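pasting for the record
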Amino acid sequence: MKPIETRKTEIDAYAKINLSLDITGVRADGYHEVEMIMHTIPLRDKITITSTVKKGNNKPTITLQCDDRSLPTNHKNIAWKAAALMIETYPQISKETDSIEIYIQKKIPVGGGLGGSSADGAGVLRGFNAHFNLGLKPEELMELGAKLGADVPFQVLGGGAGLAAGTGTSVTILPALERGTLLICDPGFSMMTKEVYQKYDSMDIPATKHPDTNALVALLRAGEQDSFCERLRNVLEVPAFAMKPELAKIKDAIAENGAQVALMSGSGACVYGIFKRESVARKTAFLMETQYGCNTFICDISRLR
């Protein structure tokens, strides 16, 4: 019997941090209007796409597997949704393919505010584009990503910095940070985005907790990184810290041990610090691991481009 012909593509799905996050309103459909300055980081999942060449007449099947058994491997997973969207949008995939297998090797913490699920969805979009030689431009992939989730369009880019506005799906590319060391602290538990937003809606948020997004964009474009870092804010820290006070203690510890800035990413639970000296970042990482039980990740800012 002639062996089944297969093709395989591997792609990295990069995480992100929020350098700022503001909520500017709530739409009639219940979605929050946001302004988020996001930055890609080297922490990444590995996605492997394997397909069998067409032999029958059926619509291609999608099989999703992941080494993290806590994640769904059906239509509830954004990576599965991304694959289904690509098959629906581009009929040539069905014409040449019997089955598609997607395997995700997780490194990005689940529920950490680092865009792990969105990274996987974006990775599948980029992976299908390469695997099936679709020739789609980044703008086209970002438009598809907007149908999957707020962070996906930015993470389709796979690098650099950007301002996401509206429901997060309108992205403007910004200059990347140029220097320093990034320390990410994962407290070992997850935050549910929906619950954090619900808590936000029930609270009276002080004006000082909101970032000045326009000023931050101007500083970033001017290369004023020190002034930029001094003004970073994430308005979702208010509800997240109310729900999990230990996150505030982690942020304070990072700030008190030499970070230029400390901030929660997304809706949590990961908190990061930007340091001018790598040695100080590594000393702080040891403290966060031994005294606060965090898992840590360190990288050079220049690698985030």
